[in-house]
Design brief:
The chain is of the alpha/beta class. The chain is built from 15 helices and 20 strands. The strands form five sheets. Strands 3-2-1-4-5-6-11 form a seven-stranded parallel sheet, sandwiched between helices. Strands 14, 15, 16, 17, 18, 19 and 20 form a seven-stranded antiparallel sheet that branches. Strand 18 and strand 19 form a beta hairpin. Helix 4 packs parallel to helix 5, helix 6 packs across helix 8 and helix 9 crosses helix 10. The longest helix has 28 residues. The protein is globular, with a radius of gyration of 23 Å.
Length: 508
Protein backbone atom coordinates (compact mmCIF):
# COMPACT_ATOMS: atom_id res chain seq x y z
CA UNK A 1 0.00 0.00 0.00
CA UNK A 2 1.06 3.58 -0.57
CA UNK A 3 1.89 5.85 2.40
CA UNK A 4 -1.14 6.88 4.47
CA UNK A 5 -2.00 10.58 4.63
CA UNK A 6 -1.30 12.44 7.85
CA UNK A 7 -4.21 13.92 9.76
CA UNK A 8 -2.65 16.99 11.36
CA UNK A 9 -2.58 19.61 8.62
CA UNK A 10 -0.87 22.94 8.48
CA UNK A 11 -3.26 25.72 9.46
CA UNK A 12 -4.73 27.71 6.62
CA UNK A 13 -4.10 31.42 6.95
CA UNK A 14 -7.22 33.34 8.02
CA UNK A 15 -9.04 35.59 5.61
CA UNK A 16 -7.72 38.98 6.61
CA UNK A 17 -9.22 41.64 4.38
CA UNK A 18 -10.58 44.78 5.99
CA UNK A 19 -12.51 45.47 2.77
CA UNK A 20 -14.50 42.25 2.95
CA UNK A 21 -17.64 43.95 4.32
CA UNK A 22 -18.43 46.29 1.46
CA UNK A 23 -19.51 49.46 3.27
CA UNK A 24 -20.64 51.12 0.03
CA UNK A 25 -23.01 48.31 -0.98
CA UNK A 26 -26.47 49.94 -0.81
CA UNK A 27 -28.29 46.72 0.07
CA UNK A 28 -28.52 45.32 3.60
CA UNK A 29 -28.16 41.72 4.78
CA UNK A 30 -31.40 39.71 4.91
CA UNK A 31 -31.88 38.48 8.44
CA UNK A 32 -34.65 35.92 7.90
CA UNK A 33 -33.21 34.13 4.88
CA UNK A 34 -32.42 30.42 5.03
CA UNK A 35 -29.29 28.59 3.98
CA UNK A 36 -27.45 29.77 0.86
CA UNK A 37 -25.70 27.31 -1.46
CA UNK A 38 -22.58 28.35 -3.34
CA UNK A 39 -21.59 26.03 -6.18
CA UNK A 40 -18.20 26.46 -7.80
CA UNK A 41 -16.86 27.63 -4.43
CA UNK A 42 -13.37 26.30 -5.15
CA UNK A 43 -13.13 28.58 -8.17
CA UNK A 44 -11.87 32.14 -8.46
CA UNK A 45 -15.20 33.93 -7.91
CA UNK A 46 -16.97 31.38 -5.73
CA UNK A 47 -14.15 31.30 -3.20
CA UNK A 48 -14.42 35.05 -2.64
CA UNK A 49 -18.20 35.00 -2.58
CA UNK A 50 -18.32 32.48 0.27
CA UNK A 51 -16.28 34.74 2.56
CA UNK A 52 -18.36 37.79 1.64
CA UNK A 53 -21.61 36.01 2.42
CA UNK A 54 -20.28 34.72 5.72
CA UNK A 55 -19.05 38.17 6.70
CA UNK A 56 -22.62 39.43 6.27
CA UNK A 57 -24.01 36.80 8.60
CA UNK A 58 -25.49 34.30 6.14
CA UNK A 59 -25.59 30.55 6.70
CA UNK A 60 -23.61 29.14 3.79
CA UNK A 61 -23.44 25.67 2.31
CA UNK A 62 -20.53 24.99 -0.03
CA UNK A 63 -20.73 22.41 -2.80
CA UNK A 64 -17.47 20.69 -3.77
CA UNK A 65 -16.72 17.76 -6.04
CA UNK A 66 -14.48 15.90 -3.57
CA UNK A 67 -13.92 16.11 0.17
CA UNK A 68 -10.71 17.68 1.45
CA UNK A 69 -9.51 18.67 4.96
CA UNK A 70 -8.62 22.04 3.47
CA UNK A 71 -12.27 23.02 3.05
CA UNK A 72 -13.14 22.53 6.70
CA UNK A 73 -10.22 24.78 7.64
CA UNK A 74 -10.87 27.29 4.87
CA UNK A 75 -14.57 27.70 5.67
CA UNK A 76 -14.93 26.63 9.34
CA UNK A 77 -18.39 28.21 9.65
CA UNK A 78 -19.75 26.84 6.37
CA UNK A 79 -21.38 23.49 5.72
CA UNK A 80 -19.33 21.63 3.11
CA UNK A 81 -21.08 18.97 1.02
CA UNK A 82 -19.83 16.80 -1.83
CA UNK A 83 -21.89 16.67 -5.02
CA UNK A 84 -21.53 16.50 -8.79
CA UNK A 85 -23.82 18.50 -11.06
CA UNK A 86 -23.87 15.54 -13.47
CA UNK A 87 -25.31 13.26 -10.76
CA UNK A 88 -28.83 14.43 -10.01
CA UNK A 89 -29.22 12.44 -6.78
CA UNK A 90 -26.21 14.09 -5.20
CA UNK A 91 -27.55 17.49 -6.32
CA UNK A 92 -30.88 16.86 -4.59
CA UNK A 93 -29.10 16.13 -1.33
CA UNK A 94 -27.00 19.29 -1.47
CA UNK A 95 -30.07 21.43 -2.36
CA UNK A 96 -32.16 20.06 0.48
CA UNK A 97 -33.06 22.88 2.87
CA UNK A 98 -31.53 25.60 0.68
CA UNK A 99 -33.22 28.99 0.28
CA UNK A 100 -31.08 30.48 -2.53
CA UNK A 101 -28.43 28.90 -4.74
CA UNK A 102 -25.57 30.54 -6.61
CA UNK A 103 -24.89 28.69 -9.86
CA UNK A 104 -21.20 29.22 -10.67
CA UNK A 105 -20.60 25.90 -12.42
CA UNK A 106 -19.09 25.60 -15.88
CA UNK A 107 -17.50 22.79 -17.87
CA UNK A 108 -15.72 24.91 -20.43
CA UNK A 109 -12.24 23.58 -19.73
CA UNK A 110 -13.23 20.01 -20.58
CA UNK A 111 -12.58 20.90 -24.21
CA UNK A 112 -14.64 21.98 -27.21
CA UNK A 113 -16.12 18.53 -27.85
CA UNK A 114 -17.45 18.07 -24.34
CA UNK A 115 -18.13 21.36 -22.61
CA UNK A 116 -21.32 22.42 -24.43
CA UNK A 117 -23.26 19.20 -23.78
CA UNK A 118 -21.85 18.87 -20.27
CA UNK A 119 -22.80 22.45 -19.42
CA UNK A 120 -26.39 21.88 -20.52
CA UNK A 121 -26.67 18.54 -18.72
CA UNK A 122 -25.42 20.14 -15.48
CA UNK A 123 -27.87 23.03 -15.85
CA UNK A 124 -30.81 20.67 -16.53
CA UNK A 125 -29.97 18.57 -13.49
CA UNK A 126 -29.66 21.67 -11.33
CA UNK A 127 -32.97 23.11 -12.55
CA UNK A 128 -34.85 19.86 -11.94
CA UNK A 129 -33.31 19.40 -8.49
CA UNK A 130 -33.98 23.02 -7.50
CA UNK A 131 -37.65 22.66 -8.50
CA UNK A 132 -38.07 19.44 -6.56
CA UNK A 133 -36.50 20.95 -3.44
CA UNK A 134 -38.56 24.13 -3.90
CA UNK A 135 -35.71 26.56 -3.44
CA UNK A 136 -36.72 30.20 -3.77
CA UNK A 137 -34.08 31.61 -6.11
CA UNK A 138 -31.12 30.82 -8.33
CA UNK A 139 -28.46 33.45 -8.99
CA UNK A 140 -26.31 32.80 -12.06
CA UNK A 141 -23.19 34.57 -13.31
CA UNK A 142 -22.80 34.25 -17.08
CA UNK A 143 -20.93 35.90 -19.92
CA UNK A 144 -21.70 39.21 -21.58
CA UNK A 145 -22.25 39.23 -25.34
CA UNK A 146 -24.51 40.70 -28.00
CA UNK A 147 -26.99 37.95 -28.83
CA UNK A 148 -27.63 39.53 -32.26
CA UNK A 149 -24.14 38.51 -33.35
CA UNK A 150 -22.44 35.12 -33.67
CA UNK A 151 -21.01 34.43 -30.23
CA UNK A 152 -17.86 32.49 -29.36
CA UNK A 153 -18.40 28.93 -28.07
CA UNK A 154 -17.66 30.21 -24.55
CA UNK A 155 -20.27 33.00 -24.61
CA UNK A 156 -22.81 30.88 -26.50
CA UNK A 157 -22.52 28.18 -23.85
CA UNK A 158 -23.02 30.70 -21.04
CA UNK A 159 -26.16 31.97 -22.78
CA UNK A 160 -27.59 28.47 -23.26
CA UNK A 161 -27.03 27.66 -19.58
CA UNK A 162 -28.91 30.82 -18.59
CA UNK A 163 -31.82 29.90 -20.86
CA UNK A 164 -31.92 26.37 -19.50
CA UNK A 165 -32.01 27.53 -15.88
CA UNK A 166 -34.82 29.96 -16.74
CA UNK A 167 -37.00 27.13 -18.11
CA UNK A 168 -37.87 25.99 -14.61
CA UNK A 169 -40.29 27.27 -11.98
CA UNK A 170 -37.55 28.66 -9.73
CA UNK A 171 -36.91 32.39 -10.42
CA UNK A 172 -33.42 32.99 -11.79
CA UNK A 173 -31.43 36.21 -11.47
CA UNK A 174 -28.87 36.37 -14.25
CA UNK A 175 -25.79 38.58 -14.15
CA UNK A 176 -23.71 38.86 -17.33
CA UNK A 177 -20.12 40.07 -17.11
CA UNK A 178 -17.30 40.58 -19.60
CA UNK A 179 -13.62 40.39 -18.61
CA UNK A 180 -13.14 40.22 -14.84
CA UNK A 181 -10.06 42.00 -13.54
CA UNK A 182 -8.52 41.20 -10.17
CA UNK A 183 -5.51 39.65 -8.53
CA UNK A 184 -5.52 35.98 -9.47
CA UNK A 185 -7.90 36.29 -12.43
CA UNK A 186 -6.82 34.61 -15.66
CA UNK A 187 -7.65 37.68 -17.75
CA UNK A 188 -5.50 39.92 -15.59
CA UNK A 189 -2.54 37.54 -15.61
CA UNK A 190 -2.63 37.12 -19.39
CA UNK A 191 -2.67 40.88 -20.05
CA UNK A 192 -0.11 41.61 -17.35
CA UNK A 193 2.39 39.03 -18.57
CA UNK A 194 2.04 39.90 -22.23
CA UNK A 195 3.17 43.43 -21.39
CA UNK A 196 5.99 42.24 -19.14
CA UNK A 197 7.33 39.66 -21.61
CA UNK A 198 6.99 41.39 -24.97
CA UNK A 199 8.68 44.67 -25.78
CA UNK A 200 6.90 44.63 -29.14
CA UNK A 201 3.24 43.67 -28.73
CA UNK A 202 1.40 42.45 -31.86
CA UNK A 203 -2.17 43.77 -32.10
CA UNK A 204 -4.54 41.68 -34.29
CA UNK A 205 -7.68 43.36 -35.59
CA UNK A 206 -9.98 41.83 -32.97
CA UNK A 207 -7.90 43.55 -30.26
CA UNK A 208 -9.58 46.78 -31.38
CA UNK A 209 -13.03 45.52 -30.41
CA UNK A 210 -14.66 47.19 -27.44
CA UNK A 211 -15.07 45.68 -24.01
CA UNK A 212 -16.44 46.76 -20.62
CA UNK A 213 -14.19 45.08 -18.04
CA UNK A 214 -15.25 44.84 -14.41
CA UNK A 215 -13.25 44.53 -11.19
CA UNK A 216 -13.66 41.39 -9.10
CA UNK A 217 -14.77 43.50 -6.12
CA UNK A 218 -17.67 44.90 -8.11
CA UNK A 219 -18.65 41.42 -9.31
CA UNK A 220 -18.88 40.23 -5.69
CA UNK A 221 -20.87 43.34 -4.75
CA UNK A 222 -23.40 42.65 -7.49
CA UNK A 223 -23.66 38.96 -6.60
CA UNK A 224 -24.42 39.84 -2.98
CA UNK A 225 -26.51 42.88 -3.87
CA UNK A 226 -28.99 41.00 -6.05
CA UNK A 227 -29.45 38.45 -3.27
CA UNK A 228 -30.38 41.26 -0.89
CA UNK A 229 -32.63 43.05 -3.40
CA UNK A 230 -35.72 40.96 -4.00
CA UNK A 231 -36.88 43.00 -6.99
CA UNK A 232 -34.00 41.47 -9.00
CA UNK A 233 -35.58 38.02 -8.78
CA UNK A 234 -36.36 36.53 -12.19
CA UNK A 235 -34.52 39.25 -14.13
CA UNK A 236 -31.23 39.56 -15.98
CA UNK A 237 -28.68 42.35 -15.73
CA UNK A 238 -25.48 43.31 -17.53
CA UNK A 239 -22.69 44.27 -15.15
CA UNK A 240 -19.54 46.16 -16.08
CA UNK A 241 -17.05 48.71 -14.86
CA UNK A 242 -16.91 52.44 -15.55
CA UNK A 243 -14.90 52.18 -18.78
CA UNK A 244 -15.58 50.99 -22.31
CA UNK A 245 -12.19 50.22 -23.83
CA UNK A 246 -10.57 48.37 -26.67
CA UNK A 247 -8.30 45.48 -25.74
CA UNK A 248 -5.43 47.48 -27.19
CA UNK A 249 -6.09 50.32 -24.75
CA UNK A 250 -6.32 47.82 -21.90
CA UNK A 251 -2.83 46.57 -22.79
CA UNK A 252 -1.48 50.12 -23.11
CA UNK A 253 -2.89 51.04 -19.70
CA UNK A 254 -0.97 48.24 -18.00
CA UNK A 255 2.13 49.24 -19.96
CA UNK A 256 1.85 52.78 -18.56
CA UNK A 257 1.28 51.56 -15.01
CA UNK A 258 4.33 49.29 -15.24
CA UNK A 259 6.31 52.18 -16.76
CA UNK A 260 7.28 50.06 -19.74
CA UNK A 261 8.08 51.31 -23.21
CA UNK A 262 6.15 48.73 -25.20
CA UNK A 263 5.66 49.14 -28.92
CA UNK A 264 2.24 48.15 -30.25
CA UNK A 265 2.11 47.01 -33.87
CA UNK A 266 -1.07 46.20 -35.80
CA UNK A 267 -0.81 42.89 -37.65
CA UNK A 268 -3.09 41.36 -40.32
CA UNK A 269 -2.69 37.85 -38.88
CA UNK A 270 -5.53 37.18 -36.45
CA UNK A 271 -5.98 33.42 -36.09
CA UNK A 272 -7.09 33.15 -32.46
CA UNK A 273 -6.08 29.51 -32.06
CA UNK A 274 -2.48 30.24 -33.06
CA UNK A 275 -2.39 33.54 -31.16
CA UNK A 276 -3.74 31.97 -27.97
CA UNK A 277 -1.25 29.09 -28.19
CA UNK A 278 1.69 31.49 -28.58
CA UNK A 279 0.37 33.71 -25.79
CA UNK A 280 0.07 30.69 -23.48
CA UNK A 281 3.79 29.93 -23.93
CA UNK A 282 4.70 33.27 -22.35
CA UNK A 283 2.00 33.70 -19.70
CA UNK A 284 1.10 31.57 -16.66
CA UNK A 285 -2.30 30.70 -18.16
CA UNK A 286 -2.47 27.42 -20.17
CA UNK A 287 -3.61 27.34 -23.80
CA UNK A 288 -7.13 25.92 -23.16
CA UNK A 289 -8.04 28.87 -20.91
CA UNK A 290 -6.25 31.42 -23.10
CA UNK A 291 -8.10 30.16 -26.17
CA UNK A 292 -11.49 30.36 -24.45
CA UNK A 293 -10.86 33.92 -23.28
CA UNK A 294 -9.41 35.16 -26.55
CA UNK A 295 -12.26 33.66 -28.57
CA UNK A 296 -14.55 35.99 -26.66
CA UNK A 297 -12.58 38.98 -27.93
CA UNK A 298 -14.13 38.51 -31.36
CA UNK A 299 -17.35 39.89 -29.88
CA UNK A 300 -17.84 43.41 -28.54
CA UNK A 301 -18.94 42.92 -24.95
CA UNK A 302 -20.62 46.08 -23.68
CA UNK A 303 -23.48 46.40 -21.21
CA UNK A 304 -26.79 46.93 -23.01
CA UNK A 305 -29.01 46.73 -19.94
CA UNK A 306 -27.82 49.20 -17.26
CA UNK A 307 -30.83 48.86 -14.95
CA UNK A 308 -28.67 47.31 -12.23
CA UNK A 309 -26.93 50.65 -11.68
CA UNK A 310 -30.24 52.17 -10.56
CA UNK A 311 -31.14 49.24 -8.32
CA UNK A 312 -27.67 48.92 -6.77
CA UNK A 313 -25.99 52.31 -7.08
CA UNK A 314 -22.39 52.27 -5.89
CA UNK A 315 -19.12 53.64 -7.17
CA UNK A 316 -17.70 51.10 -9.59
CA UNK A 317 -13.97 50.68 -10.12
CA UNK A 318 -12.44 52.01 -13.30
CA UNK A 319 -10.25 49.65 -15.30
CA UNK A 320 -7.15 51.49 -14.14
CA UNK A 321 -8.23 51.26 -10.49
CA UNK A 322 -8.94 47.54 -10.82
CA UNK A 323 -5.48 46.95 -12.32
CA UNK A 324 -3.75 48.99 -9.61
CA UNK A 325 -5.63 47.10 -6.93
CA UNK A 326 -4.65 43.75 -8.48
CA UNK A 327 -0.99 44.80 -8.65
CA UNK A 328 -1.12 45.98 -5.04
CA UNK A 329 -2.55 42.68 -3.86
CA UNK A 330 0.27 40.83 -5.64
CA UNK A 331 2.91 43.09 -4.09
CA UNK A 332 1.37 42.51 -0.66
CA UNK A 333 1.30 38.75 -1.33
CA UNK A 334 -2.39 38.91 -0.50
CA UNK A 335 -4.07 37.05 -3.38
CA UNK A 336 -7.08 35.27 -1.88
CA UNK A 337 -8.23 33.10 -4.78
CA UNK A 338 -6.73 32.35 -8.18
CA UNK A 339 -7.81 30.79 -11.47
CA UNK A 340 -5.60 27.78 -10.68
CA UNK A 341 -8.18 26.68 -8.09
CA UNK A 342 -10.37 25.45 -10.94
CA UNK A 343 -7.73 24.24 -13.40
CA UNK A 344 -7.15 21.49 -14.38
CA UNK A 345 -10.92 21.04 -14.15
CA UNK A 346 -10.80 17.55 -12.59
CA UNK A 347 -7.90 18.06 -10.18
CA UNK A 348 -10.20 17.55 -7.18
CA UNK A 349 -10.92 14.03 -8.42
CA UNK A 350 -7.28 13.12 -9.15
CA UNK A 351 -5.93 9.93 -7.60
CA UNK A 352 -4.09 10.68 -4.36
CA UNK A 353 -0.86 8.92 -3.41
CA UNK A 354 -2.49 7.11 -0.49
CA UNK A 355 -5.33 5.95 -2.77
CA UNK A 356 -3.06 3.76 -4.91
CA UNK A 357 -3.93 0.11 -4.35
CA UNK A 358 -0.28 -0.88 -4.74
CA UNK A 359 3.01 0.80 -4.01
CA UNK A 360 4.09 3.26 -6.72
CA UNK A 361 5.99 1.38 -9.42
CA UNK A 362 9.08 3.59 -9.19
CA UNK A 363 10.58 5.56 -6.30
CA UNK A 364 13.90 7.08 -5.38
CA UNK A 365 15.09 8.81 -2.24
CA UNK A 366 17.65 11.54 -1.62
CA UNK A 367 18.47 12.73 1.91
CA UNK A 368 20.79 14.79 4.04
CA UNK A 369 21.26 15.09 7.82
CA UNK A 370 21.49 18.51 9.45
CA UNK A 371 21.49 20.23 12.82
CA UNK A 372 19.01 22.84 11.60
CA UNK A 373 15.61 23.14 13.30
CA UNK A 374 12.65 21.38 11.72
CA UNK A 375 10.66 24.64 11.63
CA UNK A 376 13.44 26.40 9.67
CA UNK A 377 13.74 23.52 7.21
CA UNK A 378 9.97 23.41 6.75
CA UNK A 379 9.87 27.16 6.08
CA UNK A 380 12.54 26.75 3.39
CA UNK A 381 10.66 23.88 1.75
CA UNK A 382 7.50 26.02 1.66
CA UNK A 383 9.34 28.68 -0.37
CA UNK A 384 10.11 26.48 -3.37
CA UNK A 385 8.84 27.38 -6.80
CA UNK A 386 7.10 30.51 -8.01
CA UNK A 387 9.03 33.72 -8.56
CA UNK A 388 12.02 32.60 -6.45
CA UNK A 389 12.41 29.32 -8.28
CA UNK A 390 13.79 26.07 -6.90
CA UNK A 391 16.96 27.48 -5.31
CA UNK A 392 19.23 25.96 -7.96
CA UNK A 393 19.16 24.54 -11.50
CA UNK A 394 16.21 26.79 -12.28
CA UNK A 395 16.93 26.56 -15.98
CA UNK A 396 16.16 22.84 -15.84
CA UNK A 397 12.83 23.40 -14.12
CA UNK A 398 11.95 26.13 -16.60
CA UNK A 399 12.93 23.93 -19.54
CA UNK A 400 10.67 21.13 -18.27
CA UNK A 401 7.91 23.69 -17.83
CA UNK A 402 8.32 25.01 -21.36
CA UNK A 403 8.16 21.47 -22.78
CA UNK A 404 4.93 21.02 -20.86
CA UNK A 405 3.54 24.28 -22.24
CA UNK A 406 4.40 23.24 -25.80
CA UNK A 407 2.44 20.03 -25.16
CA UNK A 408 -0.55 22.15 -23.96
CA UNK A 409 0.15 21.40 -20.31
CA UNK A 410 0.08 23.77 -17.34
CA UNK A 411 3.79 24.61 -17.46
CA UNK A 412 5.96 25.94 -14.65
CA UNK A 413 5.16 29.64 -15.16
CA UNK A 414 1.84 29.01 -13.38
CA UNK A 415 3.76 29.94 -10.22
CA UNK A 416 2.06 30.25 -6.85
CA UNK A 417 -0.93 32.01 -5.34
CA UNK A 418 1.20 33.20 -2.41
CA UNK A 419 4.96 33.43 -2.10
CA UNK A 420 4.92 33.03 1.70
CA UNK A 421 2.08 30.67 2.61
CA UNK A 422 0.78 27.34 1.32
CA UNK A 423 -2.37 25.32 1.78
CA UNK A 424 -3.69 22.06 0.40
CA UNK A 425 -4.70 22.37 -3.27
CA UNK A 426 -2.48 25.39 -3.87
CA UNK A 427 -0.29 25.09 -6.95
CA UNK A 428 3.49 25.38 -7.15
CA UNK A 429 4.43 25.65 -10.82
CA UNK A 430 3.37 22.33 -12.40
CA UNK A 431 2.67 20.71 -9.01
CA UNK A 432 -0.34 20.87 -6.68
CA UNK A 433 -0.13 20.44 -2.91
CA UNK A 434 -1.76 17.20 -1.89
CA UNK A 435 -0.79 17.17 1.77
CA UNK A 436 1.00 19.33 4.33
CA UNK A 437 1.96 18.41 7.88
CA UNK A 438 3.52 21.26 9.85
CA UNK A 439 7.31 20.86 10.19
CA UNK A 440 7.14 17.29 8.89
CA UNK A 441 5.88 16.84 5.35
CA UNK A 442 4.96 18.52 2.05
CA UNK A 443 3.52 16.28 -0.66
CA UNK A 444 3.18 17.59 -4.21
CA UNK A 445 1.18 15.95 -7.01
CA UNK A 446 2.35 16.45 -10.60
CA UNK A 447 -0.01 18.13 -13.07
CA UNK A 448 2.36 18.30 -16.03
CA UNK A 449 1.95 16.07 -19.07
CA UNK A 450 3.31 12.65 -18.05
CA UNK A 451 2.98 9.01 -19.14
CA UNK A 452 1.85 8.14 -15.62
CA UNK A 453 1.16 9.59 -12.17
CA UNK A 454 3.86 11.37 -10.18
CA UNK A 455 4.37 12.88 -6.74
CA UNK A 456 7.24 14.64 -4.97
CA UNK A 457 7.50 14.32 -1.21
CA UNK A 458 9.57 16.38 1.22
CA UNK A 459 9.96 14.88 4.72
CA UNK A 460 11.66 16.06 7.89
CA UNK A 461 12.47 13.40 10.50
CA UNK A 462 14.27 13.47 13.84
CA UNK A 463 17.41 11.37 13.86
CA UNK A 464 19.61 11.25 16.96
CA UNK A 465 19.19 14.90 17.88
CA UNK A 466 19.51 15.98 14.28
CA UNK A 467 17.08 16.30 11.39
CA UNK A 468 16.97 14.20 8.25
CA UNK A 469 15.68 15.95 5.12
CA UNK A 470 14.42 13.55 2.48
CA UNK A 471 13.14 14.21 -1.04
CA UNK A 472 11.31 11.29 -2.65
CA UNK A 473 9.87 11.27 -6.18
CA UNK A 474 7.14 8.66 -6.79
CA UNK A 475 6.09 7.53 -10.24
CA UNK A 476 3.30 5.11 -11.09
CA UNK A 477 2.71 3.80 -14.59
CA UNK A 478 1.74 0.68 -16.48
CA UNK A 479 2.91 1.98 -19.83
CA UNK A 480 6.09 0.92 -21.57
CA UNK A 481 6.76 4.53 -22.49
CA UNK A 482 6.19 5.47 -18.85
CA UNK A 483 8.89 3.07 -17.70
CA UNK A 484 11.24 4.38 -20.36
CA UNK A 485 10.48 7.92 -19.19
CA UNK A 486 11.39 7.07 -15.59
CA UNK A 487 14.73 5.50 -16.48
CA UNK A 488 15.63 8.41 -18.74
CA UNK A 489 14.86 10.86 -15.92
CA UNK A 490 16.68 9.00 -13.11
CA UNK A 491 20.11 10.59 -13.80
CA UNK A 492 18.50 14.04 -13.92
CA UNK A 493 16.61 13.34 -10.70
CA UNK A 494 19.76 12.48 -8.83
CA UNK A 495 21.46 15.61 -10.09
CA UNK A 496 18.49 17.91 -9.36
CA UNK A 497 17.19 16.55 -6.05
CA UNK A 498 20.57 16.01 -4.40
CA UNK A 499 21.38 19.64 -5.04
CA UNK A 500 17.88 20.76 -4.04
CA UNK A 501 18.03 19.32 -0.52
CA UNK A 502 21.50 20.82 -0.04
CA UNK A 503 20.11 24.24 -0.92
CA UNK A 504 17.10 23.74 1.37
CA UNK A 505 19.48 22.90 4.22
CA UNK A 506 21.75 25.83 3.39
CA UNK A 507 19.06 28.51 3.53
CA UNK A 508 17.24 27.03 6.54
Amino acid sequence: MAPEPQSKKIAVEPWEDKDILRSDLPSAPLRDIGRILVTGATGYIGGRLVFELQSRGYKVRVMVRAASPEYEELWPDAEVMVADALEINSLKKVLDGVDTAYYLIHSLLLGPKEFASTDIMAAVNFRISAEEKQIKRIIYLGGLGDTRTKLSPHLASRLRVAEELKCGKVPVTILRAAIIIGSGSASYEIIHHLIKVFRVVPIPRWAKNKCQPIGIRDVIKYLVGVLETLETSGKYFDIGGNDILTYQIMLKTISELLNRKNIFISIPFSNIRVYSYLASLFTPVPAPITKCLLEGLKNEVICQNNEIQKILPFKRLSYREAIILAMTREEQDNVHTRWTGAYPPAHELAIKLHELTDEPKFTASYSIVTKKKASSIFTSICRIGGKKGWFSRNWMWRMRGMIDKILLGVGSSRGRRSQTSLKINDVIDFWRIEDIVQNRRVLLRAEMKLPGLAWLEFKIQDEGGKRKITVTPYFHTNQLFGRLYWYIMVPFHKFIFTDLIKQIERIS
